[in-house]
Design goal:
Length: 267
């Protein structure tokens, strides 16, 4: 089967700046592991192995101090453990780099108290459904974006990402990408260009978590995972990409073909 080179799969034309200049060999080797550390930390946190996650988050930051997703993920983990002051410090650092969604900056104090966070998450999701029923898709998207941003890592985050994608589909015109998405995608492109495909897949996954309505992030993550025969993960990412791609477009047709192939080859 013909497969296009990984670096040509840029589905959001014009939204990604050129890859950053290559660091020195030593620096590149040091930074290559940051995405993998973050991915392992997120898995450990989701499984309740908090001490292991703490150590992995620290290693991710040591490998790449600009990997701001660490502050977001670790802050939410610490918040769930009742470590309010440590969570506040992480979330403050995260907001220094990028507020993820502008709505969250106005409500960032809610992130510091889990009971209020959960209540606000439910309230935003309910407000999204009310806006949807009233025929206000953009308002529904904004409420769903905030509910997603307030969600804990894991199954709840995945569920709300699906809700957010449905809201995005209903909007015309479609909501823009957060400006910081360029940084996530440029890093993934750079890693893929260096041949670090496993790290690139993790970086695309981070981009997809940051901005669930970015087709490029899901598509490219899926393609790399498929090359490594990680079919269940590849199917999940490509299904999300297909939801976001224009129906009948060449990329949508390729996504459908890859899904059929991986379904036959998997699990």
């Amino acid at each position: 089967m013909h497969r296009r080179p990984l670096l040509l799969l840029l589905l959001c034309a014009g939204c990604v700046p050129p890859p950053p200049s290559s660091p020195s060999v030593g620096q590149a080797g040091f930074r290559e592991s940051s995405g993998a550390f973050l991915e392992k930390a997120s898995r450990a946190a989701g499984a309740g192995r908090h001490e292991e996650a703490e150590a992995l988050y620290a290693r991710a930051l040591a490998a790449d101090p600009t990997l701001v997703r660490v502050y977001w993920d670790r802050g939410r983990m610490r918040l769930g453990r009742g470590q309010v002051e440590a969570a506040r410090q992480d979330l403050d650092r995260w907001l220094e780099w990028d507020p993820r969604y502008a709505l969250v900056r106005a409500d960032c104090d809610l992130l510091l108290f889990s009971d209020r966070r959960e209540a606000r998450q439910r309230a935003e999701e309910a407000a999204g459904r009310d806006a949807e029923a009233e025929g206000s898709p953009l308002a529904a998207f904004r409420h769903d974006a905030l509910a997603y941003a307030l969600s804990p890592p894991g199954a709840e985050e995945d569920r709300l990402a699906e809700v957010l994608l449905r809201s995005w589909q209903a909007c015309a015109p479609r909501p823009a990408y957060p400006p910081a998405l360029k940084t996530f995608l440029a890093r993934a492109q750079f890693l893929a260009g260096e041949g670090n495909h496993e790290e690139a897949a993790a970086a695309y996954r981070q981009a997809a978590r940051f901005c669930p309505w970015c087709a490029e992030a899901h598509f490219n993550e899926a393609l790399i995972l498929g090359e490594y025969q990680r079919y269940p993960e590849a199917l999940r990412a490509m299904r999300r990409a297909l939801v976001l791609l224009p129906s009948g477009s060449p990329d949508a047709q390729e996504a459908e073909g890859m899904l059929l192939t991986w379904e036959m080859l998997g699990p």
